[in-house]
Amino acid sequence: MQRRYNPTHLILASVIVLVLMLLMVCVDAQAQIAFMSRRAGNFEIYVMDADGENQQRLTNNPADDWSPSWSPDGRRIAFVSERAGNPEIYVMDADGGNQLNLTNNPNDDWSPSWSPDGKRIVFESDRDNDRGHNIEIYVMDADGENQQRLTNNPASDHSPSWSPDGKRIAFSAQREGHVVKDLGITDEIYVMDADGGNQQKLTNHRAWDGSPSWSPDGKRIVFNSNRDGKSEIYVMDADGRNLQNLTNNPGGDFGPTWFNSPFSVSPAGRQFTIWGRLKQLDR
After folding, report:
1. pLDDT at res. 149
2. Whole-number Å distance between alpha carbons of 201 and 190
3. Rounded to whole angstroms, how far apart are CA atoms 144 and 16?
4. How many structural domains are present in the chain?
5. pTM of the model
6. Domain with 181 in it: what CATH number?
7. In angstroms, what is the C-alpha Rg of the chain?
8. Quick check: helix, strand or coil at residue 23?
């Protein structure tokens, strides 16, 4: 028996496709990139459209401002500034207004990273003075309250990265004490619960493994490593298994960051950018 098609269903499907196409155009038109530049003589925070247009400076201070990090809702940007005499974590509105010092600590604070729900910020700090400026990982509320140390180790812990579900944090650590010529003490990739519990080592190699970044589905972690004699981009399961070299290039590859867009024509979680850490936000 020949199947009859309902014209209403075809019209509805066409409308849905049209709406999705319009949404994709709007997303592309509104996407912004935050970045740092010293075009004005010192490092300042700028934003621009995804096509490079409408470049605008958000900070204007004699001290350096760098390391911008978008909040998940796109309304705020966390960044590092030395305007108080040492690196501190600041936050501002997406247009540069309401710039506030969140950490207010005499020691150095860096590398802010928002939790997926936008309620907390994880960062690294050397405020643990009794260990000779040892770097540890801290977390605080998005308004700077409730600053808590998550790691407590004689070796440096740094480069924290939230998992997409907000339950875990990947980071780099120098706990093994391996020393490699021209590199000094090397790093391994670790993971811990968001409250600092259950710290586990994922990599185990006498090389430098750093800059961990989660896949959008939270099942894998991409990072860079020089275990093959030069820096390459590797990926592994979130439990450290199934390690794979992705780049295998004679040049140096660093700083991988996963790309995730709900309107990407590529399979979700399959693409990532190498070197730059410039966050594109669709808002």
Report:
1. 96
2. 4
3. 43
4. 1
5. 0.78
6. 2.120.10.30
7. 21
8. helix
